[in-house]
Protein backbone atom coordinates (compact mmCIF):
# COMPACT_ATOMS: atom_id res chain seq x y z
CA UNK A 1 0.00 0.00 0.00
CA UNK A 2 1.52 3.38 -0.96
CA UNK A 3 2.28 5.91 1.76
CA UNK A 4 -0.02 8.94 1.91
CA UNK A 5 1.66 12.01 0.42
CA UNK A 6 1.56 15.37 2.19
CA UNK A 7 -0.71 17.94 0.52
CA UNK A 8 0.95 20.04 -2.17
CA UNK A 9 1.83 23.56 -1.09
CA UNK A 10 0.25 26.40 -3.11
CA UNK A 11 2.56 28.03 -5.67
CA UNK A 12 4.37 31.22 -4.74
CA UNK A 13 4.24 34.38 -6.83
CA UNK A 14 7.79 33.63 -8.03
CA UNK A 15 6.73 30.14 -9.20
CA UNK A 16 3.72 31.59 -11.02
CA UNK A 17 5.98 34.19 -12.65
CA UNK A 18 8.35 31.42 -13.79
CA UNK A 19 5.44 29.58 -15.42
CA UNK A 20 4.30 32.78 -17.13
CA UNK A 21 7.84 33.28 -18.48
CA UNK A 22 7.68 29.78 -20.00
CA UNK A 23 4.46 30.70 -21.80
CA UNK A 24 5.68 34.16 -22.84
CA UNK A 25 9.43 33.93 -23.51
CA UNK A 26 11.74 36.89 -22.77
CA UNK A 27 11.17 39.65 -25.27
CA UNK A 28 7.56 38.74 -26.06
CA UNK A 29 6.37 40.63 -23.00
CA UNK A 30 8.72 43.59 -23.22
CA UNK A 31 11.53 44.44 -20.80
CA UNK A 32 10.95 42.94 -17.37
CA UNK A 33 12.71 43.63 -14.10
CA UNK A 34 10.38 42.36 -11.39
CA UNK A 35 8.01 39.49 -10.80
CA UNK A 36 5.03 41.79 -11.11
CA UNK A 37 6.17 43.42 -14.33
CA UNK A 38 6.81 40.02 -15.93
CA UNK A 39 3.26 38.95 -15.16
CA UNK A 40 1.48 42.16 -16.04
CA UNK A 41 2.65 42.63 -19.59
CA UNK A 42 0.28 40.13 -21.16
CA UNK A 43 -0.46 40.90 -24.81
CA UNK A 44 -4.24 40.94 -24.33
CA UNK A 45 -5.54 42.54 -21.13
CA UNK A 46 -8.26 40.65 -19.33
CA UNK A 47 -9.93 43.80 -18.03
CA UNK A 48 -9.96 47.33 -19.33
CA UNK A 49 -10.08 50.17 -16.85
CA UNK A 50 -12.19 53.30 -17.19
CA UNK A 51 -10.46 56.45 -16.01
CA UNK A 52 -12.01 59.71 -14.88
CA UNK A 53 -10.53 62.89 -16.35
CA UNK A 54 -7.51 64.12 -14.43
CA UNK A 55 -4.37 65.95 -15.55
CA UNK A 56 -2.45 63.51 -13.30
CA UNK A 57 -3.67 60.50 -15.31
CA UNK A 58 -1.37 60.80 -18.29
CA UNK A 59 -1.58 58.19 -21.07
CA UNK A 60 1.59 56.52 -19.74
CA UNK A 61 0.23 56.37 -16.18
CA UNK A 62 -3.07 54.95 -17.43
CA UNK A 63 -1.17 52.26 -19.35
CA UNK A 64 0.93 51.34 -16.28
CA UNK A 65 -2.05 51.32 -13.92
CA UNK A 66 -4.04 49.16 -16.35
CA UNK A 67 -1.07 46.82 -16.70
CA UNK A 68 -0.55 46.48 -12.93
CA UNK A 69 -4.24 45.87 -12.26
CA UNK A 70 -4.43 43.28 -15.06
CA UNK A 71 -1.39 41.42 -13.78
CA UNK A 72 -2.76 41.30 -10.26
CA UNK A 73 -6.20 40.32 -11.56
CA UNK A 74 -4.63 37.35 -13.40
CA UNK A 75 -2.68 36.38 -10.27
CA UNK A 76 -5.74 36.44 -7.99
CA UNK A 77 -7.92 34.70 -10.57
CA UNK A 78 -5.22 32.04 -10.95
CA UNK A 79 -5.48 31.44 -7.20
CA UNK A 80 -9.22 30.82 -7.57
CA UNK A 81 -10.79 34.10 -6.46
CA UNK A 82 -14.10 34.85 -8.22
CA UNK A 83 -13.30 38.29 -9.63
CA UNK A 84 -15.43 40.74 -11.55
CA UNK A 85 -14.12 41.66 -15.01
CA UNK A 86 -15.89 45.00 -14.90
CA UNK A 87 -14.60 47.60 -12.47
CA UNK A 88 -15.76 51.03 -11.34
CA UNK A 89 -14.10 54.06 -12.91
CA UNK A 90 -10.74 55.11 -11.50
CA UNK A 91 -9.89 58.67 -10.57
CA UNK A 92 -7.37 60.52 -8.44
CA UNK A 93 -8.12 61.65 -4.88
CA UNK A 94 -7.44 65.26 -3.93
CA UNK A 95 -5.45 63.89 -1.00
CA UNK A 96 -3.03 61.07 -0.38
CA UNK A 97 -5.85 58.81 0.82
CA UNK A 98 -7.63 56.02 -1.02
CA UNK A 99 -11.34 56.62 -1.33
CA UNK A 100 -14.21 54.66 -2.79
CA UNK A 101 -17.80 55.67 -3.24
CA UNK A 102 -20.90 54.41 -4.89
CA UNK A 103 -24.29 52.83 -4.63
CA UNK A 104 -24.41 49.38 -3.03
CA UNK A 105 -26.08 47.32 -4.22
CA UNK A 106 -25.91 48.85 -7.66
CA UNK A 107 -23.95 48.61 -10.86
CA UNK A 108 -20.25 49.25 -11.21
CA UNK A 109 -21.19 52.37 -13.16
CA UNK A 110 -22.51 53.84 -9.91
CA UNK A 111 -19.17 53.29 -8.11
CA UNK A 112 -15.82 55.06 -8.18
CA UNK A 113 -12.32 54.31 -6.91
CA UNK A 114 -9.92 57.20 -6.26
CA UNK A 115 -6.18 56.53 -6.11
CA UNK A 116 -4.20 58.48 -3.53
CA UNK A 117 -2.46 61.15 -5.63
CA UNK A 118 0.97 60.08 -4.30
CA UNK A 119 0.48 56.44 -5.43
CA UNK A 120 0.14 56.82 -9.19
CA UNK A 121 3.71 55.75 -9.94
CA UNK A 122 4.03 53.05 -7.26
CA UNK A 123 3.15 49.57 -8.59
CA UNK A 124 2.70 48.16 -5.07
CA UNK A 125 0.22 50.90 -4.12
CA UNK A 126 -1.66 50.51 -7.41
CA UNK A 127 -2.16 46.81 -6.68
CA UNK A 128 -3.13 47.58 -3.07
CA UNK A 129 -5.85 49.98 -4.27
CA UNK A 130 -7.24 47.29 -6.58
CA UNK A 131 -6.92 44.63 -3.85
CA UNK A 132 -8.76 46.87 -1.40
CA UNK A 133 -11.74 47.08 -3.76
CA UNK A 134 -11.64 43.37 -4.63
CA UNK A 135 -11.58 42.08 -1.07
CA UNK A 136 -14.13 44.60 0.17
CA UNK A 137 -16.47 43.33 -2.55
CA UNK A 138 -15.69 39.67 -1.81
CA UNK A 139 -16.26 40.17 1.93
CA UNK A 140 -19.42 42.26 1.34
CA UNK A 141 -18.09 45.31 3.17
CA UNK A 142 -20.24 47.73 1.21
CA UNK A 143 -23.97 47.95 1.68
CA UNK A 144 -26.04 47.10 4.77
CA UNK A 145 -23.68 47.19 7.76
CA UNK A 146 -26.37 46.70 10.37
CA UNK A 147 -26.69 42.96 9.88
CA UNK A 148 -23.07 41.97 10.56
CA UNK A 149 -19.87 42.84 12.36
CA UNK A 150 -18.45 45.53 10.05
CA UNK A 151 -15.22 45.97 12.05
CA UNK A 152 -14.22 42.32 11.86
CA UNK A 153 -15.27 42.00 8.21
CA UNK A 154 -13.21 45.08 7.30
CA UNK A 155 -10.19 43.73 9.20
CA UNK A 156 -10.49 40.39 7.39
CA UNK A 157 -10.74 42.11 4.00
CA UNK A 158 -7.66 44.21 4.82
CA UNK A 159 -5.71 41.12 5.90
CA UNK A 160 -6.46 39.50 2.52
CA UNK A 161 -5.62 42.74 0.68
CA UNK A 162 -2.23 43.15 2.33
CA UNK A 163 -1.37 39.44 2.30
CA UNK A 164 -2.03 38.89 -1.41
CA UNK A 165 -0.48 42.21 -2.50
CA UNK A 166 2.60 41.25 -0.45
CA UNK A 167 2.62 37.72 -1.86
CA UNK A 168 2.54 39.09 -5.40
CA UNK A 169 5.35 41.57 -4.67
CA UNK A 170 7.44 38.91 -2.90
CA UNK A 171 7.83 41.00 0.26
CA UNK A 172 5.76 42.26 3.20
CA UNK A 173 4.11 45.54 2.20
CA UNK A 174 2.45 46.11 5.58
CA UNK A 175 4.16 49.17 7.01
CA UNK A 176 1.46 50.55 9.25
CA UNK A 177 -0.02 49.88 12.65
CA UNK A 178 -3.63 48.79 12.38
CA UNK A 179 -5.98 46.30 13.99
CA UNK A 180 -4.74 43.30 11.99
CA UNK A 181 -1.05 44.31 11.73
CA UNK A 182 0.18 41.59 14.08
CA UNK A 183 -1.27 38.94 11.76
CA UNK A 184 0.89 40.10 8.86
Written overview of the protein:
- The chain has 184 residues and is mainly alpha-helical.
- It has one domain (45-183).
- Helix content is 40%, strand content 7%.
- The chain has a three-stranded mixed β-sheet with strand order 1-3-2, with helices on one face.
- It starts with 12 loop residues before the first helix and ends in a 15-residue tail after the last helix.
- Mean pLDDT is 75; it is low at 27-43.
Jot down its keywords.
single chain, 184 residues, globular, mainly alpha
Number of domains: 1
Mean pLDDT: 75
Radius of gyration from the alpha-carbon trace, in angstroms: 18 Å
Overall form: globular
Count of strand segments = 3
Query: How do the strands line up in the largest sheet?
Result: 1-3-2
Structural class: mainly alpha
Strand content: 5-15%
Amino acid sequence: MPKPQPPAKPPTAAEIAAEVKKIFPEGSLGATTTISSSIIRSPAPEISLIFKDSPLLTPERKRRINSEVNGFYLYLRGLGFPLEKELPSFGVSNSNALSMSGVFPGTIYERQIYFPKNSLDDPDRIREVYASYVFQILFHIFGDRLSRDFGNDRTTATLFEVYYASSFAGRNLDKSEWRGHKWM
